[in-house]
Amino acid sequence: MKQASHKSLLKTHKNDMEEIREAALAYYEAGTQEQRQLAWAFFRTLDVDGDGTVSVHEFRNFLRDRGFRLLDNRSFFQALDRDGNGCLDFYEVLTFYYIIKSGRPCCDGCGVFLTGLFFTCLNCHERSHTTFDLCSACYRGRRFVHPHAAILDNYTLLTHKRLMTMGALGAGQPNMSQIIPSTSSNLTRGKSRRVEFQEGVKEAFEAFDAAFTIGTYATYAATVCSIM
Fold this sequence. Notes:
The protein is built from ten helices and five strands; from the N terminus they run ααβααβαβαβαβααα. By secondary structure, the chain is mainly alpha-helical.
């Protein structure tokens, strides 16, 4: 049963990694000659023995030397290893290169690499040098401790950022961190985690609704300006 569960999880990781692989390849093919050379230089850095592939040993040594310890696990390597031959070719390493360059996060709850949809703290995203990110399982299961309540999935966050940019066309529209107050002052000792979580979900949806309200206002303002 445990082996079957591992195979199922690995298949999920590979499917999610395929989208990242496509993005990495698209950027590589659309890039300049200099950018492509940088990608090849990165590959040669990992390919220590120069045999044209990156072994598990070479890969793990690189992760440990460069401080990527959260990615130092078998499932991550296997997800990158598209053909399953036990080593990484250039295009498989290219996926890893894109992951590093794009700053893809790991879950702050369980540490798993976030390949697809994930949740992020709106306040930390807008005001901090570091983000607070969660996989769906940790967010749904409330397996985290964090002082801020407004947590959005990455697709909703992208929509929020776009609409906030549109909102800037209006007269001094406030940003969402000001609209959605931090709940750190509300985390009283007697309040249950369930209540805190429910309030967080409520505020996250309020943030989503407010973003669309601002977007609608911005569209209206732009229309009025164009008429005048």
